[in-house]
Every structure is written in C-alpha cells, then in structure tokens.
Amino acid sequence: MRSATSLAMLLASVAACREVPSNLKSFYNAHKNSSCANPISIEYSSGQGDADTVYCQDDASGAVFLKDTSKGYADVDIDCDGAGIGTGDCGDDPSGQSMTAFKDLVQEYSNGAVDDLNTHIHNFVVLGNDNSADEGDGGKSFDPTKDADIQPLSVVAVVCGDKLVYGVWGDVNGGKVTGEASLSLAKQCFPDEELSGDSGHTDHDVLYLAFPGEDAIAKDANWEAETAEEFEESLAAIGDELVKKVAAGKAKSRVMRATL
C-alpha cells in the first residue's frame, strides 16, 4: 500500500504534468491574437489598462473566457480572500477580505467541514464584476450566472504556462478589475515565479474557460483536501468532460448579442 506521503507526491506529479488537449490548444491558439467575436460584457480592466478586457463567449460550447481587446487573454492577480487571508505568501496582500462570495455554498457542499475557500489550497478563479460605486465606477456589471449560466463553484479550465490546471469559480470582483485567481492556482500555473498577494503574473497569456450548466458544478470536489494538488485532481473528472466540448478553431459570431 502507498503511504499518504507517496500518494500526495503522485497526485502532485499528475497535476503538474497535465497536458493541454489538442482541441483546447487549438482553441487557445486560434483566439489568442484576434479580437473577441462575441463579447457579452462591457470592457473591464486588467489592472494594467482601464478598459482592455471583455467576457467573451464561445458559440459552440457556451463557455465564457476573459479576452484582451487586442491580443492575448488575461493575467493573474492573486486573490487572498477567504480562509487563507493574511497568511503565508498572502501576508503582503493589501486588499484581502475575510470571506469569498460563495462561502455558504462551500459549507453546504462540504457538509460543514470547510468554512470557506482557502487560497493556499483551493484553486479558484474570480469571475464577474459588480462594478460597485465604491470599488468600480458604478456602471454596468457582469453576472456570470445571469448573463451566461455559469454556476457558482463550477469547474473552470485554466490554460497557463503550457499546461492545463483546473479550478472553480470561487469569488466575484466588486470593481472593474479582472484576472484574479487563488494563490494555489497561480503557483501551479507558474511555479518558478515569486507569486504572492502583492505580486502576480503580468503577461496576458492565461485562458480562464468557464462552462455553463449544472453539470459543471463541483459539488463533490475534495473540499477537505490538505494540498492544492489534491483539490485540483478532484476536479479533473468534471473538467476533462467539459474540455471535450470545446471545438478547435475560432468561434463564430453569435446572431444574438447581449446588449452592452
């Protein structure tokens, strides 16, 4: 029998070596240097530009992703909200909050065993922009559930650093900034970069791909995982099925577009 330590090392190796499937790699390459064919939001901010990122929808699969309005996708800013606030490499975070947007659902899906997402363990992505008057400009918001049927704590496929890493939609931005993810996800993507709550990955080369529908919800994920690798691996069964829905090549423009 394998020891708990050897099993954890095996899971870490599997997660670290997850290759990008050919259909998803083709999708990534086809969209990277073009503009979004089907924007379903106003232009938000990457943090490096005031209005340079839209939520884009793939017509074939209904999947939604962040797209730079010129070339590229999104960056990675570190979200230290939730149970891991102020600890470890999130000790330098200037804007952490004590809870994530779907704390109640985390408690429900974990049967009360987990109080909230922990940025050091749970791979999660920040999607949606409330664009509140306090944190944004009080203008148009984007709600992934209402606007695109993306469900809270559903699996998100992340293409980063020439690998595929799975996370969940775990938090919402109150303002206009996009491209945030948990520290655990960021470190799996870019293990050689010195990432922390105040230092993210600045290149716009990260594809966050979120899928619509109830089937994408990670209700049975290993919420009590002790490592980020264990949690990520528990998302793979759902994630692999979702990724199969992505057609290679560029999505066609939709006939009906959201009113921006």
UniProtKB/TrEMBL annotation:
Q: Does the keyword Secreted apply?
A: yes
GO terms of biological process kind: polysaccharide catabolic process
Which GO molecular-function terms appear in the entry?
chitosanase activity
Annotated signal peptide: 1-16
What Pfam family does this protein match (any one)?
Glyco_hydro_75
Could you say which EC number(s) this protein's record lists?
3.2.1.132
One cellular component term from this protein's GO annotations in UniProt: extracellular region
The compartments listed are:
Secreted
Superkingdom in the source lineage: Eukaryota
Name the protein family. Belongs to the glycosyl hydrolase 75 family.
Q: What is this protein called?
A: Endo-chitosanase
What species was this sequence derived from? Bimuria novae-zelandiae CBS 107.79
